[in-house]
């Protein structure tokens, strides 16, 4: 498991105008770099997280990363994100994409907007990977672009959050 915080103070109790983004990685993604590189590439999870945290710092955002192999820990982390007033989640639920109604329900319960990311193109693989319990709740899905997909999802989140008014609501025009 990795939990990393950067930017401002770790414990937050009130909403802030600084974008707060949580990047979540599901089971087996701690093995990136050596795990089936033909599907998942050679970048390690640390490589990916470092790039995302660095991008957050440049943008004046608070980017945290979290990986866990257990469903309950991921669910608890989503609940914590709501208490921390996380503005946006980037999540690769990994194999839980195809099985976890419980993790889906946690995201639905918190109503934190999220982008679903997959390193591989799940639609070009085995049929059991074609169904996601998350995609219909997600703001968007990035699948098949490797580690770059996380960066694109974070860029989207940062743009989306820059469009906030001082009261935390969104301006009416879309961030695309
Ligand atoms: C994955 C795709 C899933 O089907 C798989 O179980 C993973 C990783 C991806 O990033 O491509 O663990 O989410």
Observed structural traits:
176 residues, alpha/beta, Rossmann fold, six-stranded mixed sheet, disordered N terminus, binds 1,3,4-trihydroxy-5-OXO-cyclohexanecarboxylic acid
- Give Rg in angstroms: 15 Å
Q: Which fold does the CATH topology refer to?
A: Rossmann fold
N- and C-termini, Cα separation:
33 Å
Structural class computed from helices and strand pairing: alpha/beta
Q: Encode the helix/strand succession as letters.
A: EEHHEHEHEEH
- Give the helix proportion (percent range): 25-40%
Total helix count? 5
Unreliable segments of 5+ consecutive residues: 1-12, 171-176
Q: What average pLDDT do the residues reach?
A: 89
Biggest sheet descriptor: 6 strands, mixed
Q: Which CATH C-level class is it?
A: Alpha Beta
Query: How many distinct domains?
Result: 1
Annotated CATH homologous superfamily: Dehydroquinase, class II
Ligand identities? 1,3,4-trihydroxy-5-OXO-cyclohexanecarboxylic acid
Q: Beta fraction of the residues?
A: 15-25%
Give the second-level CATH assignment, the architecture: 3-Layer(aba) Sandwich
In the sheet with the most strands, the strands line up as 1-3-2-4-5-6
What is the overall shape? globular
Number of extended strands: 6
